[in-house]
Amino acid sequence: MNAGEARTEGRPRARVLLLILLLEVVFQAWIADSEIRRNVYLICYALMLPTVLLLVAGPVLKAVLRLRGGELLFAYAVLTISLPVAGFGAVRFLVPGMGYVPHAVEADAGLARFLPAWSGWPVLHDALPIRLLYRSGAPDWSAWRPPIFFWSAYLGLLAAAWMGIGWLVRRAWIEEERLAFPVARIALEWTSASEPAWRRPGFAIGAAIPLVLQSLLAVREWFPIVPAFELKAWNARELLFPNPPWSAIPDIPVGFYPMAIGLAYFMPGPVAFSCCFFWVAIRLAHVGGFALGLGQASGGEAARFPYVPEQGAGAWIAMALLTLWALRRRGAERTPTERRVDRSVAIATVLALVSASGLQAGCGVPWGIALATVAVAAAYMITAARVRAESGAIWTFSPLGWTPGRVALECFRFGAPSAGTVGGVALFDLVHVDVRGQSLPYLLEGFRLGRDAPFRARDLVGWSAAFGAIGLALAWWFQIDATHAVGAAGAAANPYGLTKVRVAWQSALAAGRTDRPDAAGIGAAVLGMVVTALLQWGRARWIAFPFHPVGYVLGLTLTTNAFFVPILIALVVRSVVLRYGGADLHRRSVPFFVGLVLGDIVVQTVWALIGRAADAPVYPFLS
């Protein structure tokens, strides 16, 4: 180990911390401007555009700032952990949700039942600040202070819990199970001290493909005469299967996202195969249900068959429980000091989750439902981190519709829930409706980077917490300002944030419409738990067992649904490479696929900057 690496294993140098601080400010401002005003998404991918830009600029930054050893990767890791709080399932949904009921009650009279409870919640209350939020105008910061403080406390408690969970599972996932961590692998390949990917044959070709194809699409957005090949997914179901019973298949997205193909190449074979298998199996279930008189055409409860979101909820909870159960075997391998530290971390994690539940209870949510909501949210986060660690999960979606709040309402209530309970659950589901704004997957990828970089895990945790707090404050500032500039409900605003606010409320309302739990949905969730457990048992019992539970877990979400074709392409190519070229050809092919990933992200970043400079709309590369 050279001197630079030795110093990196000490405390981070001031120049590295100043670089992180500067980029935190710049990136948070950029995120708010792009995602709210310009419909350009920067941080919804597993690899975020701003932090990839830092990676790509790394060789220059290392020379100019004289960075040592793993300092660039340390800065990258801290920023990937601190930036998501600005995204989906955090500030990005909280801001447009802070006046939703009074704003939307004119269009939806059913929301009027929540107005009496609204005055007791940590939201905007007065008519003027609410009108300014949705129709544009200068923000009333005095009205915003109470919601900002409350929700910052809630997000902070969750972040503390995620750090505790990440600390507890990191050694098992990284050192013992040696999970693939495809997202971290991209960063390690790019920054390799011995042979970085950008210097190896194949990288330039891989990067050139998205550079050319995506740029043609961006230019065609401005000049329609320019020919271009569409890479975004389109629904081929009507073309392939226009008639029953095959028309019961909900959709067949066909897309060729370069980044998705590149990341999927680093998926372990069983995971990629299982993603494809269960994608097909779920669609065949729709066809079989139609033949039996079930599915969307049947109406009533049968229209929900095969209960994909409900199965997904059970599968995600089961995956988390199996992950925690596996940790019980680690006791004998730890030193007494490590046991004491882990015990303290576990206690602190539980206290953070209970405290988060207490904030919900303080808003009128019954303690049982509050505890259940936070427990399910924690289970979803553990599973999100697990599937990211095993598959890369280009997008990481939790079960659609069956949010933690809805699961808690369905399973832990007695009789019809009150308006205050349903509304309180909907309000907190602004955070839990999406997992992409939470830090746990990025934290574990940071721990994986730290194994090779090297930097200390405790430095990563400490500085990520510090810059996470700074990033949270900046996210509130920039996003409230950007939202007020265009109006959350204005024509110039990106509608996605307000759309997800509606989803959170609709999910809670769906669970609160009757005085009885959703027996069919709960049954489907139990089925999802059983299938996940059986798949895990099969993998533990038989070495050649072909199915992986991560494939089933992802197959029940939008992740595999959107990226089935890229995963299939990567699986076929990887199988051919290993079959006919062996491990040597596979190693030599890696730079090409790193180029596909980074080239795609960089070209999207460049066009986002061009659009910002020209103040012009940019081709939506994602959707």
Kindly estimate the percentage of residues that lie in beta strands according to DSSP. under 5%
Q: How many angstroms separate the termini? A: 46 Å
Mean pLDDT: 90
Total beta-strand segments = 2
Using only CA atoms, what is the Rg? 24 Å
Helical amount among residues, as a percent range?
Answer: 55-70%
Question: In what order do the strands lie side by side in the largest sheet?
Answer: 1-2
- Give the count of helical stretches: 26
The largest sheet, given as strand count, sense and whether it forms a barrel, is: 2 strands, antiparallel
Principal-axis shape? globular
Low-confidence stretches: 1-8
* Content-based structural category: mainly alpha
Element pattern in H and E: HHHHHHHHHHHHEHEHHHHHHHHHHHHH
Structural domain tally: 1
Report a brief summary of the structure.
The chain has 623 residues and is mainly alpha-helical.
What does the secondary structure layout of this molecule look like, with pairings?
Blueprint: H1 3-8, H2 14-37, H3 49-56, H4 58-65, H5 71-82, H6 91-97, H7 100-104, H8 115-118, H9 127-135, H10 141-176, H11 182-191, H12 203-222, E1 234-235, H13 237-240, E2 253-254, H14 258-264, H15 269-291, H16 308-326, H17 336-362, H18 367-391, H19 404-411, H20 419-432, H21 440-452, H22 457-486, H23 496-511, H24 519-541, H25 549-555, H26 558-614
Antiparallel strand pairs: 1-2
Helix pairs in contact: 2-5, 2-22, 3-5, 3-26, 5-21, 5-22, 6-22, 6-23, 9-22, 10-17, 10-18, 10-21, 10-22, 11-21, 12-26, 14-26, 15-25, 15-26, 16-18, 16-24, 16-25, 17-18, 18-19, 18-21, 19-20, 19-23, 20-23, 24-25
